[in-house]
Amino acid sequence: VQLQASGGGLVQAGGSLRLSCTASGRIRDMNVMAWYRQAQGKQREFVGAARGGDSPNVANSMMGRFTISRDGAKNTVFLQMNSVQPEDTAVYYCYAMSYYGTHWGQGTLVTVSS
């Protein structure tokens, strides 16, 4: 399984950005697609996930600003980021769990300028 993330870039504080991640390859039972992020010098942290038929969920600290959605037919997960702040600057990684195990994408850099 390969995960291709896109949509990162430079955005001003208060702006919006939409990340996409599409899975390809040996796709079977892609039950979870999620986003994590890692700021420089910090541990990787959970952002949000779309799990099977459940409603997507977002980490409490990002709730109200970030939204997770998924297009199951296209094996794609989206992260809509609104009202971004400089502390949202990080590499955002796509994650998936399938029949074949867990998978990570290469990451896409989001930089928020103040």
Task: Characterise the protein shown here.
The chain has 114 residues and is mainly β. It is 0% helix and 56% strand. It has no helices and eleven strands. The protein has strands spanning 2-6, 9-12, 17-24, 32-38, 45-51, 57-58, 66-71, 76-81, 90-98, 101-104, 108-113. The strands form two sheets. Strands 2, 4, 5, 6, 9, 10 and 11 form a seven-stranded mixed sheet that branches. A hairpin with a 4-residue loop joins strand 7 and strand 8.
Structure characteristics:
114 residues; 7-stranded mixed sheet; 56% strand; globular; 4-stranded antiparallel sheet; mainly beta; 11 strands
Q: What percent strand?
A: over 45%
How far the N terminus sits from the C terminus, by CA atoms, comes to 37 Å
Structural class: mainly beta
The largest β sheet comes out as: 7 strands, mixed
Order of helices and strands: EEEEEEEEEEE
How many helical elements? 0
Mean pLDDT level: 95
Shape descriptor reads globular
Q: Provide the low-confidence segments as ranges.
A: none
The percent range for helix content is under 10%
CA radius of gyration: 13 Å
Based on the structure, what is the oligomeric state of the protein chains? Answer: single chain
- Total DSSP E strands: 11
